[in-house]
Design a protein that fits this description.
single chain, Rossmann fold, 15 helices
């Protein structure tokens, strides 16, 4: 069995599936693991993506987990490595993007990498080092209100420099437009100037393909899933990868379905509203959870009643930014988040035991909690549902012989009718 070529470390679960989706689109058979696997038989794949839950934990813990993942990926024979984070560069002045990138470079004994969270297909572009979400700067996009990683600065050179001991530089669009050789020359000039990490501009997919080609010899690449567009071609050009026409094929799974939403993002709020206009939904109230009310039991009973009529329900904790802030003020940010995640995870586990086999989950933290509760350890990546969100299927779950079909969506991703599209795709 051929060894994996590309080893990836993602700082949350939906980000991992987002990245894996890109690689499958490029013809790489891709497996995503939930955490660092225990020793066992090698996984048959061209690319391996280790999904961590490290985006918002303490920086030293994120570094430790990422290094553990790197060690496992190196043992699988991977030739190049990729640290994946959100296309909105979710982080704080203490980390975790800078500290993890520093540690991975140290472990690989390398002296340079790029940082490029651009994802034009989903409206994330970088120009002169500034990150745009659609037509507005990052700090005007709603991300300034993120409950865990509020982004108040759109200039990624400044943002990254505040959280890394490495000198941060910029590969401007002028250089990107000149092609891969010009980018490589710029990298060499930056290295001579002591730069160890460079933000890379990108405003369209073609820029990402060019950047991918330019970075073929880097041992480490960091960024959003978009930069992965250009990586499969490098392996194919080196005769290491044959185009897999069926890389995204997944067998059909029968069974009942549920939609679970924990994200408070604008996109998920709109998706919840769209669903609730014509379909059944049950809202999880964090304050009721904190009072010890039987919210989980009520949600499960709501789902049971509708499943008898072959209806799929939405169980959600999605709220407006003002509502989120009010709950966090009363309960604290960490407690409020954990209450919701634990509740949705418990609901998912109970419904799985009652025959649900298809799960659509909105929110990175929520997705992490749900897949852990379901006992999912690895996923085969299937076709794209919406940009950045593929259909997936469990390879080994604590579900006997019954695999699960899952769509794990980052909060900000997906069209307004995403839930319906995902159920159809699964």
């Amino acid at each position: 069995m051929a060894q994996a070529l590309l080893g990836c470390i993602a700082d949350d679960f939906t980000g991992a599936t987002d990245l894996a989706n890109m690689l499958v689109r490029g013809g790489m058979r891709t497996v995503q693991t939930i955490g660092v696997p225990a020793s066992g038989a090698p996984l048959e794949a061209d690319a391996l993506v280790v999904a961590l839950k490290s985006r918002t934990i303490a920086a030293d813990a994120a570094v430790s987990q990422s290094l553990e993942a790197l060690e496992w990926l190196r043992a699988q024979g991977c030739r190049q490595f990729f640290f994946k984070y959100c296309s909105t560069f979710d982080s704080t002045d203490k980390g975790n993007i800078g500290p993890v990138a520093d540690a991975l470079l140290d472990a690989l004994k390398d002296d340079f990498t790029i940082a490029c969270p651009a994802f034009p297909e989903n409206g994330r572009t970088i120009f002169r080092g500034n990150l745009f979400v659609g037509d507005v700067l990052l700090n005007e996009s709603g991300m300034e209100n993120h409950p865990l990683t509020p982004m108040g600065d759109a200039n990624l050179v400044r943002v990254l420099q505040r959280q890394t001991r490495s000198k941060v530089g910029l590969i401007r669009y002028d250089t990107i437009a000149q092609g891969a050789e010009a980018i490589r020359a710029r990298i060499e000039a930056l290295k001579k100037d002591g730069v160890r990490v460079a933000i890379a501009d990108a405003i369209c997919d073609e820029d990402l393909f060019v950047l991918g080609e330019a970075c073929r010899d880097l041992s480490l690449i960091t960024g959003g899933s978009g930069i992965a567009l250009g990586l499969p071609a490098n392996f194919r050009a080196a005769n290491l990868l044959e185009h897999a026409e069926h890389a995204a094929d997944l067998p059909k799974i029968e069974g009942k379905s549920v939609v679970l939403a924990g994200s408070a993002s604008k996109a998920t709020n709109a998706q919840v509203a769209q669903w609730r206009a014509s379909k059944p939904g049950f809202r999880i109230d964090p304050l009721a959870l904190s009072r010890g009310e039987a919210v989980v039991e009520q949600a499960v009973e709501f789902a049971r009643a509708h499943m008898k009529n072959d209806e799929t329900v939405l169980i959600y904790a999605t709220s407006s930014p003002d509502e989120v802030k009010a709950v966090q003020k009363e309960l604290g940010v960490e407690k409020a988040g954990h209450l919701v995640e634990d509740a949705l995870a418990s609901i998912a586990r109970t419904l799985r035991d009652e025959g649900v086999r298809k799960f659509v989950v909105a929110g990175g933290e929520t997705s992490g909690a749900v897949v852990q509760a379901l006992g999912v350890r690895s996923l085969r990546i299937g076709p794209q549902i919406d940009p950045g969100v593929p259909a997936t299927q469990s390879i080994d779950a604590n579900t006997g012989d019954a695999p699960l079909a899952l769509a794990l969506k980052s909060g900000n991703f997906g069209a307004i009718d995403f839930f319906a599209k995902a159920l159809s795709a699964l």
